[in-house]
Amino acid sequence: MDTTEHIRTYIESLSGTRRSDIEVLHGIILDLAPDAKRWFLDGKDETGRVVSNPNIGYGVLEKQYADGTTREFYQVGISANSSGLSVYLMGFSDKAYLKETYGPAIGKADITGYCIKFRALKNVDMETLKRAILDGLQRTRV
Fold this sequence. Notes:
Number of helices: 4
Shape: globular
Radius of gyration: 15 Å
Number of strands: 8
């Protein structure tokens, strides 16, 4: 199964608002970055143990680890979880940037150094979320 098929199957496995919200987010990101590489991470480690929720990723960045090694990873990711949805904006060096820049206007969301988490899209300002996603794509472009 290719990445596009994995993504489609994952989205179809969701129900209700989480499914429709992930479909909307997926469409928004594809509109913002139509040529971006697509990723699907099933949430399992190399032994098959579940370690996270499945993620859909977009774009490419070089992720550097403390030991100096690097690997490719996605720039922006989305995931459904038990409490709603998460949008991951990877590669920001300033861990306060997202909260300071988008927190006041985004609505009902928890923001960390790289994640915007919310119960449903209806709880966030869509234009602010789009600006944050586009910012994440532009700031981490390789």
